[in-house]
Amino acid sequence: MPNFNHVVIVGHLTRDPVLRYLPSQTPITEFAVAVNRRWFGPDGQRKEEVGFFDVTAFGKQAEVINQHLKKGNPLLISGRLSFQSWTNKEGKKRNRVYITLENFQFLSGPRPGETAASADAAQDTPPGNDGNNF
């Protein structure tokens, strides 16, 4: 049976991106995106739920996101679900599912000082990045 792991979401950043570097000097940026879902229930009342998704970006994309986006900015994200498991300081096993970014699209106009070249650079996926660089 074939496998397929692909996610596309549009939402707003819930916090400013955080840039750091792996021991290999690969840039990595982490941020979160909120996605709203609105619908009408069987009683005719408007309902809403919000999903919060952690996102990790690597390489040039990580640097561009960190440089040009901040809390509240809208963003289209395309990527894959990734799973991480660890044991915390208290010895309790912890897990998380997050999105490893593969491509993205700015959804608002360029911020002051942003050029088309910097937006184009955001679309370059770093070679050899399989997202398992932790």
Q: Strand order within the widest sheet?
A: 1-3-4-6-5
Integer tally of domains: 1
Largest sheet: 5 strands, mixed, barrel
What is the helix fraction of residues, given as a range?
10-25%
Number of helices: 2
Shape: globular
SS class: mainly beta
Description of the molecule:
The protein has a single domain (7-121), classed as Beta Barrel (OB fold (Dihydrolipoamide Acetyltransferase, E2P)), CATH 2.40.50.140. The chain contains two helices and six strands; from the N terminus they run ββββαββα. The relative contact order is 0.23. It is globular and about 55 Å long. 12% of the residues lie in helices and 49% in strands. The protein is mainly β.
Structure, briefly:
The protein is 12% helix and 49% strand. The protein has 134 residues and is mostly beta strands.
Layout of strands and helices, then pairs:
Blueprint (H helix, E strand, L loop, with lengths): L6 E7 L4 E4 L5 E14 L5 E13 H10 L5 E14 L5 E14 L9 H6 L13
Parallel strand pairs: 4-6
Antiparallel strand pairs: 1-3, 1-5, 2-3, 3-4, 5-6
